[in-house]
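Input chain follows. Return structure tokens only.
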Amino acid sequence: MRRLFLILSLLLPVTVLGSSASLAQSKLDASILSYDGKDFVRTETTLMNNGQPAVNTKLDPDSAAYKALVEKHSYTGPATVFGRDYQANYAPLMSKDGQLTGALFVGVPK
């Protein structure tokens, strides 16, 4: 849990500083995703999909974020999630033995 807090603490200022003008008009969105060896699934999220919470939805495997995460790299850049454009940050979550277990997403709507 402390590691999760640390990662979120590091991602949030990057997003805020990079998009301070956007914050006056929008809010941050965030997700915690689990990884089963194939899919990243949103287990907790502020994202909405067709007016419903986007829990249990999958990260697009064709996205730049997915490609970076499966290589255990973070991704910072543009992302389209449920038809909405974001300046996004994704960070991989790994177990003590180095296994990829999930990811964090923080994004500012454009």
